[in-house]
Amino acid sequence: xRIPLLLLSAIAVPAVPAMAQDADVEDDRNVIIVHGRxxxxxxxxxxxxxxxxxxxxxxxxxxGRLEDALGNVAGFQxxxxxxxxxxxxxxxxxxxxxxxxxxxxRALVLLDGVPLADPFFGYIPFSAAAPERLDSIxxxxxxxxxxxGAGALAGTIELESADLRTLPLVSGQAMISSRAETELSxxxxxxxxxxxxxxxxxxxxxxxxxxxxDDQRVPASVRAKYDSWSASARVVQPLGEQVxxxxxxxxxxxxxxxxxxxxxxxxxxxxxxxxxxxxxxxQVDALAYGQWRNFTNIVISSTTFNRSLDQKDTPSxxxxxxxxxxxxxxGGHVLRLGADYRASSGHLAEDGxxxxxxxxxxxxxxxxxxxxxxLFLEDDWTIGPVTLTGGIRADRYTxxxxxxxxxxAAGALAVDNQFADRSDWDVSYRGGxxxxxxxxxxxxxxGYTSLRLPTLNELYRPFxxxxxxxxxxxxLRNERLEGFEVGVDYTPIEGxxxxxxxxxxxxxxxxxxxxxxxxxxxxxxxxxxxxxxxEFSAQAEIAYFTFSGSLAYTDAxxxxxxxAADLHGFRxxxxxxxxxxxxxxxxxxxxxxxxxxxxxxGAQFEDDQxxxxxxxxxxxxxxxxxxxxxxxxxxxxxxxxxxxxxITRNQGGSMDMGVPLTVWGGLRYGF
Length: 671
Description:
The chain is mostly beta strands and 671 residues long. The protein has a single domain (5-669), classed as Maltoporin, Chain A (Beta Barrel), CATH 2.40.170.20. The chain has a 27-stranded mixed sheet that branches. A five-stranded mixed sheet has the order 3-8-9-6-7. Strand 21 and strand 22 (386-408) form a beta hairpin. The model is unreliable at 1-31 (pLDDT under 50).
């Protein structure tokens, strides 16, 4: 069992008083202030549908996991309802606005400006982004690609790391669940020179729960065991009065067992990034990063319970960066111009087996390279109570070096496909307007387009979830979204606010798994997925009580012709109409919190044919933090209080379930 050295160092430091640190790190001689963040948001940011989650919200969930915190925003949706303890990592694709998906993310997730998605699959490694390392999360539903980058099809989720504004010198947490599962994390955040450093580690492990219903269990059925760790280090140093350097490293490993004995999966990664921020008259954000990932997975037959597939090696890498410049143009304008680049390469090596005999039948190899160079220009113009914004983006993309080869067990070449390289330009835009009509009322409207390239996984890798084989498709076209929205923000009194947004979004050439016959699907572009709906949110702070709630209703329909004509008018797979989340918290004193969260996700379908239904699910979670002594607090958490059955997969009646009633207890220091 490996526990990262960074985690050991973080929890082994002698306990010291968790005194609050200065809001900024200053050198008394030169008055150098280190911020540790990117450039400030531009004036027109609220013209789009933006929700922000603060640190209290992010670190006060019943599961203690990132996807649970994101679930506070109605419309946030994973491909499946499972969390990152009991799902296959490659199924952790996310989207917003019920735009569907096929396990690849239609929303762009950034950690301190760096894309977090796996370069090969496009899934989000949630276990690598521990909530206690974050200060805030900004979620933009819709909004277009703009200066964010290609991949922001359904929206953008920006994770902002915590620093000395919110972190004491030493903090940590140790938890144990009613199933004897454990969660251990620690962080050190010292001043270093004129700047700061943050070193953090986390280790989660447990026997898990049975995802298989009682009446479907067999001797080979096992609990969803998991064992994961992650470690990160971040250093921020000034290079002058208005320039700073930010360095970050991340390492993680996640091992899981799903449904049957031997159905092991693993994901691992190593990320590094360097960022220079200049806050002078010419503001600059210059970022470069590298990522190295791998994934393995063993598929066990649900009839013979023998190994049928061994995805033994899927190494991938992502390299890129971004340069944004804001020149001092004046006149109420904030001008942004720049470029971003991302290259994603990866390769798959897997072995197929005869599920009855256990004999090797075929060895398969696939992979390729996707690149995207984006150039963007955007301007915000404030004229009294009106803020206007508009921008244009041009992407030069390539899909190249694609191949798929298969060999017989004896080593004879059976398939040798070399796919033609493709490249082109794609232009997108976004624009909006915001009117501060009164001190309490703000009106907004926006229109936008955005782009997503098919992932290497969608292009080249077939997969099996028995009894269904899903074929890859090297001819997939880019997805393109066109959308507009109107909204109103109302703050009748201080501490109470409401937001209402109506939207109409359409993903053209949407990639989905199209049923060919009873045992075969293929990833294909269909004409479009069209989603119309409303999003409502409310916030209130009254004395010691806070309320935070959001609701989303989406009427999403597929549009298909030709081979996909039978999908026309159907709702996309894994897409509910209704989703809502509401949390009431009571905070009578520092380090004291009592909170209850209600969530509801409407019914949805497993597949494109709407044959297998996933019933609606309503859950209640609890969280409590009570101060003890010397900086320590007791933490109590309850997941799925009423033990509601959550169906996460249903293929022909073969089902998987989500997390049951789970009770956690433990200690927290320095939060």
